From TrEMBL:
Keywords: Disulfide bond
Listed name of the protein: Fibrinogen C-terminal domain-containing protein
Ranges that cross the membrane: none
Any single Gene Ontology cellular-component annotation: extracellular space
Amino acid sequence: MWTEAADLRITNIFSPERCQNVQGLGLFLSVRFIPGNDALHALTSGNESMAFRVVLINNTHDYALLDYESIRVASEKDLYKIQLGKFLGPNGWDSMEVSNGQSFSTYDRDNDKWSDNCAVTYRGAWWYNRCHSANLNGLNLNGAHDSFADGMDWSLRGYTTPLQYYSYPSALMMIRPAKLLRR
């Protein structure tokens, strides 16, 4: 069984207020509340190694399962830095590669390595580097769109692919004990 870290199925709205609540991202998605980074830290900082799974679901209900051998999210003091283990998904699909080892950036806390604020530019709080090839906290633009990389985006290898003009209508982020991950 997986524990949902985020179920991103309903349109989310980017605003400064959503980033000010570390107990939960402050994102209300109709009936769901996304656990905050404090909860992710608590779930991933114990002695037991936790695996991370991303499920991307497109408009035709096809899906991709993307697994990481392990995940750790640091405390607020360490800016919720994410550490991911080995990627176990299909070649070219490791869009978290550029986020690995990065601190969490929000509208009001710019912790990325870009001169501007990636969370403002790409309209979602995330583990940005200079900025991203994955941003599942972006806007739910429900498929193809004209704006660059501000949707719920998971691009293939690198920063500029057609998938940065595609917003997955549905995405799940889940964790569970790594010992239960099938390899």
